[in-house]
Amino acid sequence: MIEISNLQKSFGSLEVLKGIDLAIPKGQATGIVGPNGAGKTTLIKTILGLVKQDGGSIRFNGKELDGDWLYRRDIGYMPQVARYPENMKVSELIEFMKGLRDQEAIYEQELITQFSLDSELDKPLRTLSGGNRQKVGATLAMMFNPPILFFDEPTAGLDPRSSHRFKERVAKEKENGKTVIITSHIMSELEQLTDHVIFLLDGRIRFNGAMKQLLTESGEERLESAIARMMDSPEEQAAPANEDGQQFLSEELKIA
């Protein structure tokens, strides 16, 4: 479904993505891991069209992306740090998103209930806690029932109950055949939710395969230990490239 060939991206003199080749098939739950600055968020934003690559190509369902944004109607995106209009109420943001995407919000009320957001709907976004903002982001990402879901550090700031409910929901989406891509520093979370691992280091893919394969090859029982072993290997040592942290509100809202 998503095919990437020789993807390159630099910010000034910082080379962030150094020729990424990658294929993410339909219905696969994939975890993207790597240290801070490895290129994870830049990779996701480039796929989403929030960052323009310097070289290489991205194909979506066999069609090369050339500035056409319509493919993003099939994507739900939950950014690590969402930037919302601070004076807008939660209910107003949801209605704004429904008008912007012009799609039926099939799971709107179901997700609001699941994430206990009913009491937050009339509150301005500036008053929400970090955890509740995350729950709003999860609701916006999934309520249109898109076939592809991107989650960037999704449980950061969530309390244990909300984190559990989020994982239950993602597991359900996975069972329904959705293509799920998650970046997270919580390896146990990825063990629960994904079957496939992409390990990025210094803007390059160091591993791309089944989680069971990674554990077998590393001789480790847990993903955290396997990734740590790869990072400690002499051949893998490299100074990680920094990522650009700039946010693109209007574009993110279109595919939230």
Structural class: alpha/beta
The CATH architecture assignment turns out to be 3-Layer(aba) Sandwich
Low-confidence stretches: 236-254
CATH superfamily: P-loop containing nucleotide triphosphate hydrolases
CATH fold-type name? Rossmann fold
Please tally the β strands and state the result.
10
Q: What separation lies between the terminal Cα atoms?
A: 20 Å
Main β-sheet: number of strands, strand sense, barrel status?
6 strands, mixed
The CATH C-level name is Alpha Beta
- Element order, helices and strands? EEEHEEEHHHEHEHEEHHH
Integer-rounded radius of gyration: 18 Å
- Share of residues in helices: 25-40%
Q: How much of the polypeptide forms β-strand, as a percent range?
A: 15-25%
Shape: globular
Overall pLDDT: 88
Number of domains: 1
Describe this structure as you would to a colleague:
- α7 (211-218) packs across α8.
- This protein has one domain: Rossmann fold, CATH 3.40.50.
- The strands form 2 sheets. The protein has a 6-stranded mixed beta sheet with strand order 6-7-8-3-9-10, with helices on both faces. The chain has a 4-stranded antiparallel beta sheet with strand order 2-1-4-5, with helices on one face.
- It is globular and about 50 Å long.
- The chain has 256 residues and is an alpha/beta fold.
- It contains 9 helices and 10 strands.
- It has helices at 40-48, 90-101, 108-114, 130-142, 160-175, 187-193, 211-218, 223-232, 249-254, and strands at residues 2-11, 14-24, 29-33, 55-60, 63-64, 75-78, 148-152, 179-183, 196-201, 204-210.
